[in-house]
């Protein structure tokens, strides 16, 4: 509840009772905005509990049709469009489908333990390949603030990537 603090009333600028004891005054020019402390807490709770899956960036990233359309736009032929679409891809969340596919590195044939590297590291689209390589890089390299569990998980993924031929495939397409 925001009220305009105007300087009228009982000399203090607003009518004071027990329910308005906790207020924060924020100076703004000649007048002040009075913000109830409970309102600030409620706004914080709403922000923290907001379902981000409905945000436009999450919709673009998680809806495979929209995500594929963005990659199609990259090959449209216009450098200006490609630059803007690539910038958009870099600011939206990582596509969960691609991330999970790379994270799991499931073998296509249980008997031979082979991964379909051509579908994961697809060299037919330079943009998809670059996007995928950024995901691979994030899985290979632990961040400085990673905990011991994350470091161990990344080491296990790195071992799996090398064992299943990820490096050899990457070397062959470059």
Walk me through the topology.
Elements (H helix, E strand, L loop, with lengths): L1 E4 L17 E6 L2 E6 H13 L6 H7 L1 H11 L4 H13 L4 H9 L12 H4 L5 H15 L7 H16 L2 H8 L1
Antiparallel strand pairs: 1-3, 2-3
Helix pairs in contact: 3-4, 5-7
What are the secondary-structure elements, in order, as H or E? EEEHHHHHHHHH
Unreliable stretches covering 5 or more consecutive residues: 1-47
Number of strands: 3
Task: Output the structural class.
Answer: mainly alpha
**Percent in strands:** 5-15%
Number of H/I helices? 9
Rough shape?
globular
Task: Explain what you see.
The protein has 174 residues and is mainly α. The chain has nine helices and three strands, in the order βββααααααααα. It has helices at 37-49, 56-62, 64-74, 79-91, 96-104, 117-120, 126-140, 148-163, 166-173; strands at 2-5, 23-28, 31-36. α5 (96-104) packs across α7 (126-140). Mean pLDDT is 75; it is low at 1-47.
